[in-house]
Amino acid sequence: MLSYQHIYHAGNMADVHKHGLLAWMLAYLTRKDKPLSYIETHAGRASYDLDAAEARKTGEAARGIQRAQSWFAPDHPFTRVLKQVRAEDGPQTYPGSPMIAARLLRPADTIHLAELHPREHGALTYAMSPYPVTCHQRDGFDMAHSLLPPMPRRGLLLIDPSYEIKDDYDEIPRHIAKFTRAWNVGIVALWYPVLTSALHVPMLKTLSKTYPDALRAEVRFPPARPGHGMIGSGLFVINPPFGLDAEAKRLKDRIDTLN
Ligand code: SAM
């Protein structure tokens, strides 16, 4: 039974890191006229109210996006999406990754989203109803295996599990190996937590060995609460677009000021 709900963590520093880089990559990809595919294995509900009791309970957004929004220039794609959703849905709205994609991509682009939890899937379907996207209520890895290689062939796959199932750390390199065998031209981005327990480390070792040219964008920040096991955020990007390393370094330099 899944119990993770992203509303408790929406807009935290890990989201700022992941969403800032995701928005940059999607904007980069849309510089070319050619259509693209966006596929996301673990979508969440796409729109978060930072005033909700769950979000206020942890206060993670106050130490995340509320502090970091000025780090992004007014014309940065992440700022553009933040401004749009706040103008339309209220100043405490925070966009999840599917919303960032839906807002930055174009009508000819294709979006597939998987969310397994019935309540989160319902909220995702509602938030995405104005956009031409397909929401699947199924396991995200299964969905990606069935869609790759996608049409259009250019594009990005985001894998953002909640890591509730500890086997995920073992299974993910095997899934990614199959994904890249089926789709060697796609950008594959995996988010992972940096943990005091070092549970993520063997997975990263395997991935770095298999994909020596991938970008490992990793940042550290103070834990959300004293003793909390997550002390940073990582995005492992296979086939990273040109310039992503510089953007990741720029964001890391800002996040480093918190340490
Ligand atoms: N990617 C979202 C974002 O950045 O806005 C956040 C996603 S949250 C970290 C992970 C989500 O994956 C949760 O909503 C959870 O219900 C869902 N989930 C967990 N296991 C899944 C699976 N096997 N397939 C699809 N979704 C799953």
TrEMBL record:
Protein's recorded name: Ribosomal RNA large subunit methyltransferase J
Any GO BP: rRNA base methylation
* InterPro entries per record: RlmJ, SAM-dependent_MTases_sf
The EC number on file is 2.1.1.266
Among its keywords, does the record have Cell inner membrane? Answer: no
Function (record text): Specifically methylates the adenine in position 2030 of 23S rRNA.
- Gene3D superfamilies in the record, alphabetically? Vaccinia Virus protein VP39
In the UniProt record, what gene is named as encoding this protein?
rlmJ
